[in-house]
Amino acid sequence: MAGQEQRRRGVILVPFPYQGHINPMLQLGTILHSRGFSITIIHAKFNSPDPSNNPEFVFHSIPDNLSVNQKSSGDILGIILALNFNCQTPFQECLVQLIEQQDQHGEISCVVYDELMYFSESVASHLRIPTIILRTTTAATFVSRLTLQNLKAEGYLPLQDSMLLDPVPDLQHLRFKDLPISILGTPEIFFQLISHVSNVRKSSAVIWNTTECLEKSLLMQLKQHFQVPIFPIGPMHKFAPTSSSSLLEEDTSCITWLDKQTRNSVLYVSLGSLALMDISELTEMAWGLANSKQPFLWVIRPGIVNGSKWIEFLPRGFVESIAERGYIVKWVPQKEVLAHDAVGGFWSHCGWNSTIETISEGVPMICKPSFGDQRVNARYVSQVWKTGLHLENNLESHEVERTIRRLMVDEEGEEMRHRARELKEEVEQCVRNGGSSNNHLEDFVKLISSF
Ligand code: UDP
């Protein structure tokens, strides 16, 4: 066995240290391991993945020099720039060591880095190791970022309020208000970042956790745009169903609770690993859920309301009022929840992982995006794939209640559930032998085997 491991060619993966980025990168690791590669993860100390979830991988932690204040600041743009500056030298030292050990552990085929960890490219290229970019968002988000750069060059930014509801020329499904402009940091920092992220530099290919059946025409457009091959091989979790990389402990008691509910009756509610809300939003959401009279499973992440330990800011009397009908937890095994028969809808912030996991299980959505690419995803769910409702206004309990009933009770929701099931089947086709994602994956494996 050890001999076999030694003969494997190695792939080095560099994830960006947040849940929505660690998951797809480790799924890719599981896929490539099953195709005969050894997997080494080089990761920042901050938000380290748990090696015991993947004993088949080798993990190397590198210092990131992020201060305690930076880590808790929520300033993700600042953290991205700091990681790209601080990790470069330790990454180079780690890579040099691994190169020196190639005789023992097998030759390194390539480095696959998250698009936000772009420092990896210059270090690896300097050491003559081929690099591949992993993009964990959609083709639509990528094209939206290019559009934002053009709008800036043409002097349209900052966007006038009067334009916000107008369609973006060349991006027919998006309005100006849906563009993924960052609410964090200064515009200069944001545009500096998207220019780094959009640039392929010397990388040999780009992997996307999306699929042709969701974004065919945009992916065709991007094939023309890039000088290197692109591989849309999503949804990657469907190729790696056992992959697990949760940073928080999953509360599996929710599955026992779901087992007791009737088919399609439960609204699952979660805003992912980063989105924050204020007390008034939490309150409106809580009463809307209670008044909808639908069963719900609600993930309230500790700290989702600034300064909260957990659910102490829920309105008085709320927990008692929902009794058997609602179940509140800190974190769930989300893919298992979405695959459960009892779940009939998902109120989501529309992070891309959550969105593609939901599409893969044929579940309709209530979209309440907070920032960045979530707005693009919400628009695609509601307007292009037509498998969800977009909650656009400020949270208000009556509207929350009405929207939940439209999705979970009304004919309109049933039609969306039907479309969601059809889309699920299309996505399943992409992953099967002969499907587009499967074919792209085969081509990708051939490419990295040829390095
Ligand atoms: N997730 C989970 N349990 C939860 C909530 C979320 O395992 O209770 C996972 C979810 O399956 C997804 C990831 O966390 O893979 C969140 O990524 P996403 O891109 O949806 O949003 P982000 O957290 O990056 O905003």
Output the keywords:
47% helix; alpha/beta; binds uridine-5'-diphosphate; 3 domains; 15 strands; quercetin 3-O-glucosyltransferase activity; globular; 7-stranded parallel beta sheet; 6-stranded parallel beta sheet; 20 helices; Rossmann fold; 451 residues; quercetin 7-O-glucosyltransferase activity
The biggest beta sheet reads: 7 strands, parallel
Question: What is the count of DSSP helices, taking H or I runs of 4+ residues?
Answer: 20
CATH topology call of the largest domain:
Rossmann fold
Strand content: 15-25%
Give the total of beta strands: 15
Low-confidence stretches: 1-5
- Alpha-beta classification: alpha/beta
Bound molecule kinds, no repeats: uridine-5'-diphosphate
Estimate the global geometry from the Cα principal axes.
Answer: globular
pLDDT averaged residue by residue: 95
Alpha-carbon distance between the termini?
Answer: 25 Å
User: What is the level 1 CATH name of the largest domain?
Assistant: Alpha Beta
Number of domains: 3
Major sheet strand order: 3-2-1-4-5-8-9
Question: Would you kindly provide a written description of the structure presented here, covering whatever features stand out?
Answer:
This protein has helices at residues 2-7, 19-34, 68-73, 76-86, 88-100, 102-105, 119-126, 139-153, 187-198, 212-225, 236-239, 253-259, 279-292, 318-322, 334-339, 352-361, 373-384, 397-408, 411-431, 436-450; strands at residues 9-14, 37-44, 58-62, 108-114, 131-135, 167-168, 171-175, 205-208, 230-232, 266-270, 296-299, 326-329, 343-348, 365-367, 388-390. The chain is an alpha/beta fold and 451 residues long. Helix 5 packs parallel to helix 7 (119-126), helix 8 packs across helix 9 (187-198) and helix 13 (279-292) packs across helix 18 (397-408). Helix 16 (352-361) links the parallel strand 13 (343-348) and strand 14 (365-367). The radius of gyration is 22 Å and the shape is globular. 45% of the residues are buried. The strands form three sheets. A seven-stranded parallel beta sheet has the order 3-2-1-4-5-8-9, with helices on both faces. The longest helix has 21 residues, at 411-431. The chain is built from 20 helices and 15 strands. It folds into three domains: 10-139 and 194-244 and 431-450, 3-Layer(aba) Sandwich (Rossmann fold), CATH 3.40.50.2000; 140-193, no CATH class; 252-428, Rossmann fold. The chain starts with a helix and ends with a helix. It binds uridine-5'-diphosphate. Residues 18-20, 23, 246, 270, 272-274, 299, 331-332, 334-335, 351-354, 357 line the site of uridine-5'-diphosphate (UDP). The site of uridine-5'-diphosphate has 19 residues, from helix 2, helix 15 and helix 16. Keywords: Glycosyltransferase, Transferase. One of its GO terms (molecular function) is quercetin 7-O-glucosyltransferase activity. Belongs to the UDP-glycosyltransferase family. It comes from Tripterygium wilfordii. This is UDP-glucose iridoid glucosyltransferase-like.
